[in-house]
Input
Amino acid sequence: MIRMTAALFLTTMLTLPAHASSALANSNACMSCHAADKKLVGPAYREVAKKYASQKDAAAMLAKSIKAGGSGKWGPVPMPAQPALSDADALTLAQWILGGAK
Ligand code: HEC
Output
């Protein structure tokens, strides 16, 4: 099952290079709580991008907060930590979100 998921993920990455980061978001279940342009359980990625648009170290900061999870920045619902996510993937996701999650 894990191997099948990995194969599927790789195929998606190879066939849709322009959407590599959204595939990453999908495969890490980010999209069960987030959407690009509307609030679900967590804030819309475009709102996140807007909030940190003027912050210089936003990508590194967000990568950290994606891995560690958090609460109280957007509302009372906490985001669970993502210990299985690599630092590189967290940074890729942070940059993708800051770019408008397209
Ligand atoms: C179980 C639901 C859930 C999942 C799964 C989830 N999130 Fe979140 N996320 C939240 C909630 C709720 C918040 C708001 C937390 C707060 O108020 O501080 C949040 C906040 C964020 C933020 C803003 C952090 C900040 O410092 O302002 C980012 C970026 C983010 N999530 C990205 C992700 C990514 C990428 C993934 C997948 C690896 C993911 N989330 C998975 C619920 C979730």
The chain has a mean pLDDT of 88. Residues 25, 28-30, 32-34, 41-43, 48, 62, 65-66, 70-75, 77-80, 82, 85, 93, 97 surround heme C (CB under 6 Å).
